[in-house]
Amino acid sequence: MTDAHPVTGLDDVVHQRVRLGILTITHEARRVEFGYLRTQLQLTAGNLSQHLGVLETAGLVEIEKGYEGKRGRTWITLTPAGNAALAEEIGRLKLLIARVEEGFTA
Amino acid sequence: MTDAHPVTGLDDVVHQRVRLGILTITHEARRVEFGYLRTQLQLTAGNLSQHLGVLETAGLVEIEKGYEGKRGRTWITLTPAGNAALAEEIGRLKLLIARVEEGFTA
């Protein structure tokens, strides 16, 4: 359909609130530890793991397990596809915002 | 928590892709017909009804049933709370975009 609204172009994998948070924070930090994401996003470990799984399956993040001293750590980085997907989402949000703001001033 | 990320301030009722679409289109058009929303958002009637129900329960839209000739029609408008919630979402998205874009140019 050619008359669909720009919002139909948003991808739920990326747009969903928690996943958008994961992508944004990981993008900012380049590489983040699981516990840091949990604190920043105020999530349970299970909930964060589930959303990371969705992003990993979609090829948007890479998850590495390792150690810091004796403590197990999980590190998350964005893949090039993850960076591209975030940039795409931001581009679409800007179009959406422009349309809404036209409405507020009209 | 004071160190939470701005994304935690996003409200799922408003941020969810389809509902953000409903609010944006209704805001643009001031008053929209159910069938128009369906076409624009490429949804089934059941799916659209479900999301409209969430927005109505939250007090963000008003739903009126009436007739156009002999055909039943359902009209949707934003409430003042719906307008405010959309403006709030847009404000938060702009903060998020600013943070992401700093990262892309850094």
TrEMBL record, chains A, B:
<dbReference type="InterPro" id="IPR036390">
    <property type="entry name" value="WH_DNA-bd_sf"/>
</dbReference>
<feature type="domain" description="Winged helix DNA-binding">
    <location>
        <begin position="18"/>
        <end position="96"/>
    </location>
</feature>
<dbReference type="Pfam" id="PF13601">
    <property type="entry name" value="HTH_34"/>
</dbReference>
<dbReference type="InterPro" id="IPR036388">
    <property type="entry name" value="WH-like_DNA-bd_sf"/>
</dbReference>
<dbReference type="InterPro" id="IPR027395">
    <property type="entry name" value="WH_DNA-bd_dom"/>
</dbReference>
<protein>
    <submittedName>
        <fullName>Transcriptional regulator</fullName>
    </submittedName>
</protein>
